[in-house]
Amino acid sequence: MTSGTSDARTVDVAVVGAGPTGLLLAAELAMRGVDTVVLERDRARPTFERAFNLGPRSLELLDRRGIADRFLAEGPRVPAIGFAGLVAPLSLAGLPTDHPYVLGIPQTRTEALLEAHALEQGAELRRGHAITAVAQDADTVTVDVHDVQVDAPSYRLRARYLVGCDGGRSTVRKQAGIAFPGTPATRYALLGDVVVDPAVLPFGHHVTPRGGVWVIPRPGYARVMTRERTRPADSDAPVTLDELAEAVQYVLGRDVALSSPRWLTRFGNAARLAECYRAGRVFLAGDAAHVHPPAGAQGINVGLQDAFNLGWKLAAAVQGWAPPGLLDSYHAERHAAGERVLAHTRAQAALGEPTEAVAPVQAFLRLLAQTPAVRRALAECVTGLDVRYVEACSADGAPDSIEREPWLGRLAPNAPILAEHGPSSVAECLRGGRAVLVLRHGGPEWPSAHEAAAAWRERLTVAHIAPGVTSDHPTAQWLAGVTTALIRPDGHVAWLDIEGRNSPPPLRDALARWLGPPAAA
Q1: Cα–Cα distances in Å, from 286 out to 121, 265, 307, 347?
Q2: Which of 32, 373, 441, 510 fits a 20 to 30 Å CA distance from 25?
Q3: CA 346, CA 366: separation in Å to the nearest integer?
Q4: Rounded to whole angstroms, how far apart are CA atoms 192 and 262?
Q5: Contacts of 173 (CB under 8 A, 6+ apart)
Q6: Nearest CA to 265 among 51, 437, 5?
Q7: Is the pTM of this model over 0.85?
Q8: CB 241: neighbour CB atoms within 10 A?
């Protein structure tokens, strides 16, 4: 193509950024037959290791697409998580998940596996294609794309929708005119993947009155992190090995030999949240929508949840059956989730400050964390297992619906259920990307629910509650007393009928709200 010419076709969705968020979103769209193109500025995947973990919620989502095993084969499983480095590791045992651990997997491997998954589903990936301008009208978004390969011309791509998954400095966000309010970085930390003698600097968290040094073991090297002593004049300036060594020496009060650096960088405590996740036909997800202190390593995990929430909704709009307000619910649900992530990561960053003013709060947190209920709440918060969507919770219009039915709006745990082919599970029934209607055989809603399901059969899978499902297993408890449950394509419970406890609106109303008009109408 010559400069300024257009791609021959108008794609359904263009995704900018081939990080974990963009790749999972592309897979979610392509699996539903949506014509999807991913534009990635870099010609090759980065070789240095950035993030190192996938949390329980991310593994649950991957399991609901049948690919979790690919990731689980890549690294160790850690059955606990920290909070601000102040309390003993928070056990994930007993939480309502069948993945009660954090998976140690390099981001490069996460991206490689998600790229393979997206390509398997039929998405198109264009590496070395950087966007330079975005414009939209009532029907399409036009993107100017520069092919960074030598002497390759620029071109224009038209899409029905555009999603920016292009990081904290998102070009899409800026071009769409979406504000990014928040607080700039006021302090920085240094990170280095280096060789260090564990006899001199053992693995773990080393705390002194001057701060802390984290040492995380990796194959053949260690990841060393500590606070930068003074704010850099240029936060983008390269970090040197001497700078990292000097910062470690300051905290510990002794020299530590660091060598053979693989990657050196700095990161700040900036916290920003996009004013809106949608502007017309343009959407934001992942770091393009939110940046926060790295406490708890939330970045990848929150972005994957964004993608899982948005994918089925965009596909519904492309395919023409999206009910009113469905696309707007992406902002309503994920913006609120972003606010929660910023709140607890900023709190952890503040609690980690080695100052006299913070010391009493640190001591009080340690006291509270001796209570099992507090430890459980902190673990669910950091892992995202406590995420609930108000849009689903308020489906019956009652303000007390959240308190009355605690599982409304939450991800349905992977309980055993019965599908048409025989024994199955919630995760297996969701792998086709459709909603799931779970019924208790012979319950009061049985005849009318089956009749309603028939009208939405193209978008809905019907399953039955398996005998003995009300056991003490944490992933099965949520079905105790349930006669009917509607689970959205992203796995969240949108509607519940619990015998003798509430009178929800008709099931047909809930189906229409989330799955549009009946296909059989």
Answers
A1: 21, 21, 8, 20
A2: 510
A3: 18
A4: 7
A5: 164, 180, 274, 284, 288, 289
A6: 51
A7: yes
A8: 14
Query: How many CA within 13 A on the CB side of residue 252?
Result: 21
Q: Do residues 170 and 286 touch, judged by C-beta distance below 8 A?
A: no
d(CA 287, CA 14): 17
CA geometry: angle 238, 243, 244, nearest 5 deg: 100
Predicted confidence pLDDT, tens digits, the chain (521 residues): 334 566 668 999 999 999 999 999 999 999 999 999 999 999 888 776 667 789 999 999 999 999 999 999 998 899 998 887 777 788 999 898 999 999 988 888 999 999 999 999 999 999 999 999 999 999 999 999 998 876 777 899 999 999 999 999 999 999 999 999 998 888 888 999 999 999 999 988 788 888 888 888 888 888 898 888 888 888 889 999 999 999 999 999 999 999 999 989 888 888 899 999 999 999 999 999 999 887 666 778 999 999 999 999 999 999 999 999 999 999 999 999 999 999 988 888 888 777 788 889 888 888 888 899 999 999 999 899 999 997 665 545 454 555 667 889 999 999 999 888 888 999 999 999 999 999 887 665 667 777 888 889 899 999 998 776 665 667 888 888 888 899 999 999 999 888 755 556 688 889 999 999 987 55
Q: What are phi and psi of 211, to 5 degrees?
A: 135, -155
Angle subtended by helix axes 20-30 and 299-319, to nearest 10:
30
Q: Is 333 exposed, middle or buried (0-12, 13-18, 19+ CB in 10 A)?
A: buried
| Integer Cα distance of 91 and 74 in angstroms | 22
Contact 182, 270 (CB under 8 A): yes
- Angle ∠(436,442,448) on CA atoms, nearest 5: 60
Question: How far lies 200's CA from each of 195, 256, 427, 521, in Å?
Answer: 11, 7, 46, 72
Residue type, 114: L
324: which 2 tokens? 């009113």
Residue 229 tokens read as 């002593």
Query: In the sheet that 422-425 helps form, which strands lie side by side, from edge to edge?
Result: 422-425, 416-419, 460-465, 435-439, 482-487, 493-498
Q: How far apart are CA 265 and CA 317, in angstroms?
A: 41
